[in-house]
Design goal:
Blueprint (H helix, E strand, L loop, with lengths): L7 E3 L4 E4 L8 E5 L2 E5 L5 E3 L6 E3 L2 E4 L10 H17 L11 E4 L1 H5 L2 E6 L4 E6 L2
Length: 129
Amino acid sequence: MTQAIGATYIPMVGLYTIDCSTVVPDLELTIGGNKVSIPGSDLIVKDDTGMYCFFTIGAMDMGLSMGDSVTLGEELADGIIEQMNEFVGQSALPIPEGYDTWLVGDTFLRKVYTIYDFGENKFGYAKLK
């Protein structure tokens, strides 16, 4: 998707920049067989100056370069993984090591109600009305 909209990856901040006039298509995610649509207009955010726009979806290589962090985002991800591993006593990565993961975060969470059941290790969501 980043190639299709002409996004440029900025390693220092771990984000993609895009031209502020770019028309971004809607993004549809399917989780557990249920579809959630995120309007393309929600996938762009301007910085405080209004001069730069960023694509709100990021990608991370989880667990590939522990200790060799290049960006603040990678450093944070490595630190979180390390702390989770120490806490559970084994690899806490939710995906196999080395796979790319989309980070949708608040862009996705603004579109749904969420329920976190830590006792049962479940995550649930419902569409907003």
